[in-house]
Amino acid sequence: MSRVALITGASRGIGAATAQVLAEQKFRVVVNYRSSAEQADEVVRAVTAAGGEAVAIRADVTEADDVAAMVGETERQWGGVDVLVHNALIPFDVTSFVDLTWEQLGGKLDRELRAAFLITKAVVPGMISRNYGRLVYLSTGLSRRPREGMITLGTAKAALDQFVRYIALELAPHGITANLVAPATVDETKVTGQLRTEQVRHLGATNPMARLVRPDEVARTVAFLASEESGFTTGHYLPINGGLSMD
C-alpha cells in the first residue's frame, strides 16, 4: 500500500515541488492550501496527469479546527498520514530591530509555533499507533545565520528548530523521525517576492554556485527524509545552500 504524505502550503513553490516529487515516488499526496485553491488544483492535476494520486484540502494550519478536519478527511480517504511535510509559510515582516514591534515579532513566533504544534499533534497519534512516521519541517539558514531585515523569520524558525529536536527525541522509540530542511533563499517563492530585485540578484551572485536554490532541489532532500531509507536519521538540520555555509 502506498504511503500517505500530507504537505502543508503545497499550492506553490517548495510545497508544490515536494508534492510532485513524492507522487513520483508513489506516495499518495495531500496538497494543503489556505487560499490558493486554483493553484492547489493545478498541482493535483499535474500529479494525476503523471499517474500519481493527490487531493487538495483547504486548511489554515494556525486554526485547530481546520487542522483536525484536514487530518480527519485524510484518514477517511486514505487511512492516515505516514509523512508530514510542514512547509506552510506563516507571514512575516521584513524589518530592522529598530523599527520592530512586539506585535510583529511575538505574532510571528506565536503563529509559527502554533502551526507546527497543531499539525504535529494531529498526525502523531496515528503514527504512534502504526509505529511509523516521518516528520519533515521547513526551516531556514536564517535561524542560525542572521541577515539584515529578517529578524522575525530567523527568530521564529530558530524556535521551530528546537521544537523539532524535542519532538525527534521523544518520538524516536516509536519509529518516528523528525528532521529540519533549511534552504538558503529559494527562487520563485513568496520569500523572494518580499525582497527587492537587487537583493535577490545579490544573494544569487554571492552564493558559491552563483545562483539561488531551486524548489525541486529542496523537494528532493525532503523526499529522502520522507522515505523509509531515512529511518535512522532524526533530529537533524540539513542545510541546502550551495556551499554558502559549511558545517
Automatic annotation (TrEMBL):
Reactions this protein catalyses: a (3R)-hydroxyacyl-[ACP] + NADP(+) = a 3-oxoacyl-[ACP] + NADPH + H(+)
A GO molecular-function descriptor: 3-oxoacyl-[acyl-carrier-protein] reductase (NADPH) activity
Key words, A-Z: Cell wall, Oxidoreductase, Secreted
Main location: secreted
UniProt xrefs under InterPro entries: NAD(P)-bd_dom_sf, SDR, SDR_fam
SUPFAM superfamilies reported for this sequence: NAD(P)-binding Rossmann-fold domains (SSF51735)
Location in the cell: Secreted, Cell wall
Name assigned to this protein: 3-oxoacyl-[acyl-carrier-protein] reductase MabA
Species this protein is from: Mycolicibacterium moriokaense
